[in-house]
Amino acid sequence: MNTGKRPSTPDTGKSGEACEDDLELWRGVVHDVRPLPGRRTPAPAKLKQVEGTASSNTTGPISTPAAAPTVPSPAGSGIPGLDKRSAQRLRRGQMAIEARLDLHGVTQKEAHAMLCGFLARAQDTAKRCVLVITGKGLGRAEGGVLRKMVPRWLEQPPLRDRVLAVTPAQAQHGGDGACYILLRKKR
Prior knowledge:
By secondary structure, the protein is an alpha+beta fold. It has helices spanning 20-30, 44-53, 84-91, 108-124, 145-154; strands at residues 99-102, 129-133, 163-168, 178-183. β1, α4 (108-124) and β2 form a beta-alpha-beta unit. α4 (108-124) packs across α5 (145-154).
């Protein structure tokens, strides 16, 4: 019976227990999941339930690290309004990129203003999937400033209200130096 809710744990078989392969796959899917700003992490009771369904050689409950970096939740992590297939297509770079913004060579202040304007225009013109290129910051040991700042900006007002999901781009679109952003439909 389909209740319309997303499962928070791997599917179980007729016996009610998930097989070890399913649990391992599930751990691979959720290993880097982070809650959106202002949202809580999963309840400990649910984590115990997942732990209890595993065989004795599992590594423990599925959980998010306590010190999560400040990045928006990756696509496919149970985001309301985003089905599993769309999340998968976004992560794989298979969604049509309707607009691009290249931030190479601009200052942090200019980049923030450009990003805000770009996302506002994209959402106003009903674009859903956009690509933002920050660059990798290869000349710096710690990586590029914009590469670090764009995810932070995306989780702060006014941008967080426009963004449904963010995920690193595939190599053909810039890899670690770019990200796909799925915008919310304009209300």
